[in-house]
Amino acid sequence: MKVYKALIACCVAGALGLPLQATASGKTIKLSLSEALTMARENNYTIKAARSKVEQAEARIVQSRQSYLPKVTLLETLTVTNDPGAALVLKLQQNIVQQSDFMPEKLNNADVINDFNTSIQVMQPVYNADAALGRQLAFTAKKAQELVTARTGESVELQVARVYYGLILAQKNIDAVEQSIRTMQAHSSEAARGYSAGLLPKSDKLSTDVRLSELLEQKMMLLDEITNAEDALKVMLHLDSGVTIVPTGDLVIESALPAESDKGVPENRSDLKALETWRQVAILQEDMIRASKRPRLNAFLQTNLHSNNIFSGGSSWALGLNMQWNIYDGMATAGRIQEAKAQEREAMYNYEAAKSGSIAEVAKSMRSLKTARARIDVAQKSLEEARVSLDYIRAQFKTGMAMTFELLMREQAHTYAKMRLNQAKYDYCMAKSELAYYRGN
Predict the structure, then answer these.
(1) Could you tell me which of 209, 245, 288, 325 has the fewest CB atoms within 10 Å of its CB?
(2) Are 427 and 372 in contact (CB under 8 A)?
């Protein structure tokens, strides 16, 4: 029994000595929910990764400028040969042909010749129907990616709100448990004195110790919940692991519920808009493939400088038009069109599925909000009743009119009522956040 008492005393002293925030080991940051959301929008890696995809889409728009901008290529070629035909052509290009070069002896036994060819080629698109559609597709894809990024930010904000409210819930539950611990410590001391005086049986003394141990265990678990919530919040906000977060917000309950929307589908949801835009991308993809079957027309300009010493000698130029028409490619284009059609149908089905699911999500969130609001009223009434019952039994216990187990039951019911109220408030705040998320507000 002495060992058991010593163990209980150590647990009590250790638990009461545990601080909720260790400010000595690192910096302490006080955060409201709005500040946490702003920090997440600026620092969260998931949001940054989504923004990088928008930058990739912008880069593809830059690439699509090749549909109307010229291509300029600089070529430098060195040729060394004694081929009779090539040697004569190179001399013509270098403007160094002499009458003696046409003698049979010279033609049959050509000397080794060097040729430096500096060439500039300019290709100007004139008519490329698929390239023009590709540019339009790139702009549409960027719009879709921006909508996806916006929804990613909203999803991260919902996660931040869930963890933030969870941190507040754990701290409120700790407050309730600590108050109960202080009460039980007082009852334990009274029970110890009563047992020493022979007024209480040993079972009553042990029952208060058991209840105190339960509360201490509950506090330890809640401390773990606080640590887990802080760690998760620090990851989402990209904060140092040594930082301690102190939430300045509360589980605020509004008197009026949000109005129910008459519209079946939330029109402002960025993910639904993104799915609709991706469908437009698929349609443009099919149009672009069909356009690739049309002829392509490009203008070109080429200048050449030939010399046996670089940057000197004969020069020439050529200007013209190039037409290319892919008449038959072995059904490759037909297969690509078929694939694009299937992608368009997939995008349509995804959009319809998400649209149908959004209606159920909004309705579910609204029900959860109403239920949580009703639970708060019930929990508040239950807490008041538990408090009155505890005060009555406590007075009866002091006069010897109530048993120890009755006091413990009332105390446990009072603590449980507090935690039920805290949970109902948390569920209300989360249901409200989820309703805004699924409505796209």
Answers:
(1) 325
(2) yes
Distance CA(207)–CA(201), nearest Å, equals 10
Of 310, 303, 313, the closest CA to residue 91 belongs to 313
Task: At 78, give phi and psi (nearest 5°).
Answer: -110, 130
Indicate if the pLDDT at residue 96 is higher than 70: yes
- Fill in the DSSP letter of residue 241: T
Up-side HSE of residue 187: CA atoms within 13 Å toward CB?
A: 30
Please give the domain boundaries of the chain with CATH numbers for all domains.
19-67+134-293+330-439 (1.20.1600.10)
- As a whole number of angstroms, the distance between CA 350 and CA 149 comes to 18
Q: Is 163 helix (H, G, I), strand (E, B) or coil?
A: helix
Q: Output the DSSP codes for 10-43.
A: HHHHHHHH--SS--SSS-EEEE-HHHHHHHHHHH
Handedness of CA 137, 144, 42, 223 (dihedral sign): negative
For residues 156 and 236, is the Cβ–Cβ distance under 8 A?
Answer: yes
C-alpha of 408 from chain center: 47
Per-residue tokens: 238: 């990209």
Mean pLDDT computed over 153-164: 96
For 243, the token pair is: 């930082």
CB-based contacts of 200, cutoff 8 Å, min separation 6:
191, 194, 404
Output 18 or 149, whichever has higher pLDDT. Answer: 149
Residue 321: is it exposed, middle or buried by C-beta count within 10 angstroms (0-12/13-18/19+)? Answer: exposed
Residue 79 is inside which H or E element, if any? strand 71-81
Q: Which of 72, 69, 54 is nearest to 131 (CA)?
A: 69
Q: Which of 210, 192, 188 is nearest to 200 (CA)?
A: 192
CA 4 to chain centre: 51
Q: Which helix (H) or strand (E) holds 117?
A: strand 113-127
If DSSP codes are grouped into helix, strand and coil, which group holds residue 326? Answer: coil
Least confident of 20-29, 234-243, 398-407: 20-29
CA distance 279 to 147: 13
Any idea how long the chain is? 441
Helices (H) and strands (E) in the chain, counts: 10, 6
Global pTM?
A: 0.82
